[in-house]
Amino acid sequence: MAAEKKVRVICANDGLSADIIVSPTEGESVEYKELMDELTNTGVKYGIMTDVLHEIIEYRRYNIEIRVAEGKAPTNGEDGYYEYLFDTNVEIKPKILADGSVDYKSMGEVPVVQEGQELVRYIPATSGKEGISVYGNPIVGKRGQELHALSGKGFVLNDTRTLYTAAVTGKATLKDNWLEVTNVLVVDHDVTPSTGGISFAGDVIIKGNVLTGAEVHANGNIEVNGCVEAVTIVAGKNVVLKNGMQGNGKGKITAGGEVSGKFFEQVSIEAKGDVHANALMNCKVKCEENVQVSGRFGVIIGGNVHAYRQVEATTIGNLNEIKTSIEVGVRDDMQAKMRKLDEKQAELQKELEKIKSANEKVLEMLKQYPDNEQLKQNKMSIMRTKISKEAVYTENQKAREEMLKIIGKTVNPKIYVNKSIYAGSILTINGVTQIIKSENYNVNYYRNGIELSFQPNI
């Protein structure tokens, strides 16, 4: 049996350290050269602590594991990161006041940047610094991790993909990994018939008032900080009127998104999204989502308010029993309309299959008689019919999809009253109408068969 070595070297798996154990037999001495020789035989050549070896010999530090060599650990590089040069944390939601009403003036403004303005700078990942093992071998430091480039539109990225600059003057927003600069027009003055109306392809921010007779059209959002009178506002997206609107029976708002404002009086509103306000007075509202009138007063008085999903208000009507119509859901039989659309779609599908079959026959005959003019004319006629039918089919399909959306929104519509609903108010839910005969409190109304019922708000 071989005798155990009296000098043993133990190296770490990562090669960054080496320990030594000296175990001489009783009465036996150990020389410095023996320690160095064993380190050399093991391959250790870097970071040897000679002073520690001398201490082992001098102080006879035997039978314990002692660190005698240390390598140099590699340093990993820094990960890449983005440096944002505009405010990415703007609070654009309005404040809810103590009485539950909404302070639309408190809404932050998305920063407007100028064309050519630097928006984002990317700081690339750095390389790691090389280390060295106790064996004298280099240890490569890992390079930091690079981030994916930002997606979006309205900006220009330089050749090194490290600097994002605005391609247009507009509103800069960042959501997740999506950077977007939306074309925006900022109007610092009042908009009146004498200054001319506004028609813009992006967003419009008006810091002044919009006075009677003016028109404002935008493909994007429209925001007005001042007062709004009897004007026409048309937005492809959202409309925000921080000081509300006095329409005098002639004001009109059409929005592809939401409509929000402090109050609306004698205004006609059509919105694809929600409608939010602290008061609706003698308005005509058609909304494809929800109408919410909030706050301690939160009143809907007079007019006609119609939403697909639900209407919620603090108070509906008043003590004078002014006629106030609230409607949710739809009056028509959507299922019957859907069946008609399905039947039409099936008919069109059969016709398209016949056209396809006829076209295949003509094409087959043209292979035999390629110069036959009548066959060529038949082919052209079939193609025109096919294009026409496909257009009708597509339109019918869009109508079906729109109908499905409406059906989904109007499954269980409700009217919520958080405080009082007064006599004289007229409620309609999915075609069933009821006139309120006496005041009711803190309830919600729903359709129950061929009549309306109510229950306490929870």
What does the model show?
The protein is an alpha/beta fold and 458 residues long. It has 4 domains: 7-70, no CATH class; 81-132 and 140-181, no CATH class; 188-332 and 412-456, no CATH class; 336-396. It is built from 4 helices and 35 strands. It has helices at 32-42, 50-58, 334-368, 373-409, and strands spanning 7-11, 17-22, 66-70, 81-84, 95-96, 102-103, 112-113, 118-123, 131-132, 138-139, 151-153, 155-157, 163-166, 170-175, 178-187, 198-200, 203-206, 215-218, 222-224, 232-235, 239-241, 245-255, 259-261, 264-271, 275-277, 279-287, 290-293, 299-307, 310-316, 324-328, 414-421, 425-429, 432-435, 440-448, 451-456. The chain has a 24-stranded mixed beta sheet that branches. It has a 4-stranded antiparallel beta sheet with strand order 4-8-13-12, with no helix packed on it. Strand 12 and strand 13 form a beta hairpin.
Write the layout of secondary structure elements.
Layout: E1 7-11, E2 17-22, H1 32-42, H2 50-58, E3 66-70, E4 81-84, E5 95-96, E6 102-103, E7 112-113, E8 118-123, E9 131-132, E10 138-139, E11 151-153, E12 155-157, E13 163-166, E14 170-175, E15 178-187, E16 198-200, E17 203-206, E18 215-218, E19 222-224, E20 232-235, E21 239-241, E22 245-255, E23 259-261, E24 264-271, E25 275-277, E26 279-287, E27 290-293, E28 299-307, E29 310-316, E30 324-328, H3 334-368, H4 373-409, E31 414-421, E32 425-429, E33 432-435, E34 440-448, E35 451-456
Parallel strand pairs: 11-15, 15-17, 16-18, 17-19, 18-20, 19-21, 20-22, 21-23, 22-24, 23-25, 24-26, 25-27, 26-28, 27-29, 28-29, 28-30, 29-31, 30-32
Antiparallel strand pairs: 1-2, 2-3, 4-8, 5-6, 7-14, 8-13, 9-10, 12-13, 14-15, 31-34, 32-33, 34-35
Helix pairs in contact: 3-4
